[in-house]
Amino acid sequence: MIDFWLAAGLLLLIALSFLLIPVLRGRRAQREEDRTALNVALYQERVAELQVQQDEGVLNVAQFDTGRAEAARELLADTEGLEKPRESRLGKPLPLLAAVLVPVLGLGLYLHFGASDKVELTREFAQPPVSMEDMTRRLERAAAAQPDSPEGLYFLGRAYMAQDRSADAAKVFERTVALAGRQPELLGQWAQAQYFADNKQWSPKVQALTDEALKLDPKEVTSLGLLGIAAFEGQRYQEAIDYWNRLLAQLPPQDNSRVALQGGIDRAAEKLKESGGTVAPKNVMKVRVDLSADVKAKALPGDSVFIFARAVNGPPAPLAAKRVTVAELPVTVELGDADAMMPQLKLSNFPEVQLVARISRAGLPTAGEWIGRSQPLASSTTALQQLTIDRPDQ
Hints:
- The protein has 394 residues and is an alpha+beta fold.
- It folds into 3 domains: 2-113; 130-234, Alpha Horseshoe (Serine Threonine Protein Phosphatase 5, Tetratricopeptide repeat), CATH 1.25.40; 285-392.
- It is built from 13 helices and 9 strands.
- The strands form 2 sheets. Strands 2, 3, 5, 6, 7 and 9 form a 6-stranded antiparallel β-sheet that branches. A 3-stranded mixed β-sheet has the order 4-1-8.
- The longest helix has 54 residues, at 2-55.
- It is elongated, with a radius of gyration of 46 Å.
- The relative contact order is 0.06.
């Protein structure tokens, strides 16, 4: 900040020089004007003496003209090189007054409209914080300096959550949503902060926030984790397992939090077994397969039907598969990790999958006569899916 004020002071001196130089030049011009007036007075006095001497008969006309010409040459020599006096319409007091008022006015305007606080914050953020409290203080100052910045408020809310100041975080996330819009991630953060601010009491407000977040994005991780926590605290262990499995499917394989999350799933499973329950199979998708009227008229009862799930973003090999015949249709099957074609390619390892059903008269799962495909689905989907084989396999 000292460097800034030094630079500002230097610029101020440069500005003042433009105001003071004309004043100094005016004083110099005044001195030259006074000297010129004195020379003119001496010239007039010399001419008057010559005139008296001519009247007394001491000088004739030729001598008088010679003396007057000599006096004129001396006057010209004395005034040669002098600048023509400049006339100023402003007067002498105004530049001096401006020289005083300009710095004062400029300083006042800068303190009112300037960004000295933002300059100081920029310098502070260039240095690493010494503690979490130091970082929080900086973020608070940044939010005060830029109250309309959703990014600054978001990071302040995260800092409050790291310090167990969930009530403050909930207020900040509410302001962030008001500025940035009802984005799924922000709604999830707001719901989480509100839940802990209410001493882990589930409320209609928290439920509405998580419902809205997951409606906008079924893979919103904060809401999935929070719903799992709430279900575990409410001893709804199977529900907690389901939510945390959905969250686990979103995390990259190298994510360090996968270990802790899997530990929570295992604890919920133990609690469920202790209470006499059984853990439902993980990542089981139910799909009902049928034929369109056109395909039903052409397919043979003995034709093979391969029903499988494959990753939307991943290897082309099926993650889970079942085989039936046309004679068994319509049929409902379950696809899960137990049906994996290879141990490393499980349904739970991929966040999005596509369901496919193919009729192959030759019994080949990779090529056939007719096919049906679903839209991309979350691998954690538990609702029954309808799949119709209705088009040629190309």
